[in-house]
Design brief:
heterodimer; A: 406 residues; mainly alpha; MetI-like fold; 3 domains; 0% strand; B: 375 residues; alpha/beta; D-Maltodextrin-Binding Protein, domain 2; 2 domains; 17% strand; MetI-like_sf (chain A)
């Protein structure tokens, strides 16, 4: 698109920049006014400040933009400090940075930088609103994690931002919840259980799900749609219903395993939970593998058969490598399903199969201890690392196979 | 083919590990592992320290798994019984749940004198526990109370700290939010008491539809200022956050917030409602498992063990003979007796959870209370 944008024009200061920035100022003024119980006064004052800021920043040309932003933010923070103490400084910084950045962004005409210059003002407005909405979506997805991570370093045993924490004093923070998590059987046993159950359940779902998807993609299989619907059903039926059903289905099975094969009760418990989780994971594998099979060229299997390869060899040497991305992402989904699952394990498992989500669930109900937040933070970190690794490996293999230029 | 072995190897290894780690087997006539169900949190910790750890020290090779499912014990025991797969060996429940489990035949009836240890002076177990044996299936453990805590720093200046249960309803003197349990129990009694009903008449009045209306009308006066809680951890959290000024919860939770966590919270003992918590044994346990459970229960409910539990949590031991043995807090070294709900100074004005009344009227009043909540 860059060749379409010929030049960026500065908009008129008085008819465009000042009114637009004044609107943002009015919004901030309204919010600030609300805190002090006078939104009707805050609104016009905010608008005036916004217009004035736009005018002042437009006059100063010799200074770099980022210096302008921090200069304005410092002034706002200083004013905030006079009225609202520490909270005022933070509020002032936020308002100052956002307003001066906005004023410069509008004033310099950069808001048109991403769009072709034949766009009408309405189209430009929509383009920028769209970006803003995207940013909001991202914010609402990520923001809830921030207090979780922050509170996990709390020095107290409650989900509370203490004054010491808000003032960023060292005594308000501690790693004790992390020691609690890493140092107690209460958390380490569930972690071990999760690490036993999730990988085995994943392996079962991936093997069965991949085979099912390949079978169902053959056009000559009778009743394909019906079989598919049944296999996908654990994803659609409310989990609590599946869980109740599984409880009554697996109980006699477990009793039989214990009574007639003489298996240990705890071992049977693991088998039950692993099978139940495998059932939950299979739909994800089927769906992702079916999707990759759509792009799979059937003539390749015929070619392999032509060369004398038997179906099993064809599967592992020809088909499997090509559908591997679908298998891996299906496997990831299956793993996460099992690793995050709490309802089915509460029903099917007994205390010896207590998984991490189970422990978090009971801990949250009975204790509300920030140890849960420490566990959550560790889990979030691990899943980010896991997904990043998978994505990097995927890019690497694409590059090696010459599928993408990077 | 290589891929197949790649899949199978880790699977086989994991299965082997899983089976090895759980294959510790029985010795003699008792199994060596037990699953005990309790409430989690500080309460379960106190049981682990006072009962389970000493027991495991005495009996080498015994392992105990804890399941924090007491909150849904009745429902789960029903389901397990129906499925014919009872995985629990010993269950910690409130007395009311024990009565229900006993009536439904899900808990085993016990002979308290035969199964439990005598007091050191030779008093029989049934005399030592006395009235607290409220059901044939119930083995009492502790007396706890539901009472009210408040934020000391939010008490209006110039007013004395709350000390009367009716301060809960006094929004003029003590403005701010309240936290009350989302069920009629305790709330209805307190409402009537603060609406001028004499303490001894409370249950007579509450048995009539007019009395129930009266209680709900009293609760109506503070309704807009109430956050309803359902888990024991809620009120301490709300108090610590300063989201409520006053709230009802269990006395042990308040003790932990005030003394152990050092929060700006105070508590009242006025009109505290006593309740009991104890063990039940699931019905029809296999003989070898039952033998282990009996052995454990005999140890865990003797006079010394019940007194020991009070070192870790401020709940009163259910045995009369344990009371004089209550000593100091295990870590803080403070005297625990003044923090017991049963201490004479705290027990000047108390209710005992009225099991008979609530067994008869629970469903009816529950329905009225919930529809009142939904209005």
């Amino acid at each position: 698109m860059s060749e379409i944008i010929a030049y960026i024009q500065r908009p008129n200061l008085y008819t465009f920049t000042m009114p637009v920035v004044a609107v943002l100022g009015a919004v901030f003024g309204f919010i600030t006014g609300n805190i002090y119980g006078a939104p009707a006064i805050g609104l016009p004052i905010g608008a005036l400040i916004g217009a004035a800021l736009a005018a002042v920043l437009a006059q100063i040309i010799s200074i770099k933009p980022w210096k302008k932003i921090w200069g304005a933010a410092a002034v706002f923070a200083a004013v905030g400090a006079i009225f609202g103490g520490f909270a005022g400084i933070v509020g002032g910084l936020v308002v100052g940075v956002s307003m001066s950045w906005f004023a410069i962004w509008i004033g310099s005409g950069k808001y048109r930088a991403g769009v072709p210059n034949y766009y009408t003002p309405a189209q430009v407005l929509w383009h920028n609103s769209f970006l803003f909405i995207c940013a909001l979506v991202f914010f609402f997805l990520i923001a809830p994690l921030v207090p979780v991570v922050w509170l996990s370093f709390n020095a107290e045993d409650f989900f509370t931002f203490t004054p010491e924490m808000l003032a960023f004093k060292a005594e308000g923070y501690s790693l004790k919840h992390y020691y609690d998590f890493l140092g107690s059987d209460e958390w380490m046993v569930p972690l071990k259980n999760s690490l036993i159950i999730a990988p085995i359940a994943t392996i079962i779902s991936v093997s069965l799900g991949t085979l099912a998807a390949i079978g169902l993609s053959q056009s000559h299989v009778p009743g394909r749609q019906a079989i598919m619907a049944i296999l996908i059903s654990p994803m659609i039926v409310p989990l609590i219903i599946s869980a109740t059903g599984m409880f009554f289905f697996y109980a006699p099975l477990g009793n039989w395993l214990q009574a007639s094969l003489g298996l240990n009760q705890a071992f049977v418990g693991y088998i039950k939970v692993i099978l139940a989780h495998a059932v939950l994971g299979i739909p994800f594998v089927i769906i992702t593998v079916t999707a990759t099979l759509v792009g799979f060229d059937r003539s390749l299997t015929r070619a392999a058969a032509n060369m004398g390869a038997d179906p099993v060899t064809t599967f592992f040497r020809v088909q499997m490598p090509l559908i591997l991305p679908g298998v891996i992402s299906g496997g990831l989904f299956a793993f996460i399903t099992s690793f995050d699952e709490v309802v089915v394990v509460l029903f099917v498992g007994s205390a010896r199969q207590q998984t991490l989500p189970w422990q978090m669930f009971t801990g949250l109900r009975e204790q509300i201890s920030p140890t849960i937040l420490a566990a959550a933070t560790i889990l979030v970190t691990v899943s980010i690392l896991l997904l990043t690794t998978v994505e990097l490996l995927r890019r690497r293999s694409e590059r090696l196979r010459g599928l993408s230029p990077g | 083919m290589k891929l197949i072995t790649k899949f199978i190897k880790p699977m086989a290894a994991a299965t082997a590990i899983a089976s090895l780690s759980t294959m510790a087997m029985a010795d003699g006539h008792m199994v060596s592992d037990m699953t005990i169900v309790s409430w989690g949190g500080a309460y379960q910790d106190s049981q682990i320290k006072a009962y389970a750890e000493p027991y495991m020290e005495m009996n080498d090779g015994v392992s105990i798994t804890w399941d924090e499912s007491s909150a849904e014990a009745v429902a789960k025991m029903r389901a397990m019984n129906e499925a014919g797969n009872v995985t629990w060996d010993l269950v910690d429940v409130t007395a009311a749940s024990a009565i229900r489990l006993c009536d439904e035949g899900l808990a085993m009836e016990v002979d308290h004198d035969e199964m439990l240890a005598e007091a050191p002076d030779g008093t029989s177990a049934s005399d030592d526990f006395g009235d607290l044996i409220v059901s044939d299936c119930f083995i009492p453990q502790i007396v706890y109370s539901t009472t009210v805590g408040y934020r000391t720093d939010l008490v209006p200046e110039g007013t004395p700290a709350p000390s009367d249960i009716c301060d809960l309803f006094d929004l003029a003197t003590y403005p701010g939010m309240r936290a009350l349990e989302k069920r009629p129990l305790n709330n209805m009694e307190w409402a009537l008491l603060c609406d001028g009903v004499a303490k001894e008449d409370v249950y007579d009045v509450l048995a009539t539809p007019e009395g129930q209306e009266q209680a709900l009308a009293k609760l109506d006066t503070i309704r807009d200022n109430v956050i309803w809680w359902s888990a024991g951890a809620d009120t301490p959290q709300l108090l610590a956050d300063g989201e409520v000024f006053m709230g009802s919860t269990y006395n042990g939770r308040l003790f932990s917030a005030i003394v152990e966590q050092d929060q700006p919270i105070g508590m009242l003992w006025d009109a505290q409602v006593f309740d009991l918590d104890g063990w039940v044994i699931p019905a029809d346990l296999p003989e070898e498992r039952l033998a282990r459970v009996k052995d454990f229960v005999k140890f865990a409910t003797d006079t010394q063990r019940l007194a020991d539990q009070a070192k870790y949590i401020s709940y009163g031991p259910a045995r009369e003979s344990s009371a004089p043995l209550v000593s100091k807090h295990a870590e803080l070294g403070i005297d625990m007796a003044p923090h017991m709900p049963t201490d004479p100074n705290n027990a000047k004005n108390t209710f005992l959870y009225n099991y008979e009344f609530w067994a008869d009227y629970r469903d009816d009043i529950d329905a009225k209370f919930q529809s009142w909540l939904a209005q």
